[in-house]
Design goal:
93 residues, alpha+beta, Alpha-Beta Plaits, 3-stranded antiparallel sheet, two-stranded antiparallel ribbon, 3 helices, 5 strands, globular, binds iron/sulfur cluster
């Protein structure tokens, strides 16, 4: 299952997507270690499978929370995306 966490407003769409078919919560948990804002958390989906989620309390603030990783010029690769060995994380902006 592909799960989108985030929101849209007048300025754009701010979603982080986790593809559960790629993420079976790897041992390294690179996304948790790499994110300076600690937005990821391990949980279970409706089928009792382990999944990586974006914490509920940050989902409506992603534009601001991720701003440090997304300078308007010379944007480097995103730590969370780079850290995932299974290419399970994508960002809409
Ligand atoms: S690094 Fe990727 S595969 Fe590992 S837990 Fe995070 S999202 Fe899942
Ligand atoms: S872009 Fe940065 S702050 Fe946002 S989820 Fe990825 S590592 Fe965390």
């Amino acid at each position: 299952m592909i799960v989108h966490y985030g929101y849209l407003d007048a300025s754009g769409e701010y979603f982080i997507t986790v593809d559960d078919s790629k993420c079976s919560v790897c041992i390294e948990k690179g996304c948790i270690k790499a994110c300076p804002k600690s937005i990821f958390m391990e949980s279970e989906n409706d089928y009792g499978e382990k999944v990586m989620m974006v914490k509920d309390e940050v989902r409506k603030m992603l534009k601001y929370i991720c701003a440090e990783c997304k300078p308007s010029v010379n944007r480097p690769p995103l730590p969370c995306v780079t850290a995932c060995p299974y290419d399970a994380i994508t960002h809409s902006w």
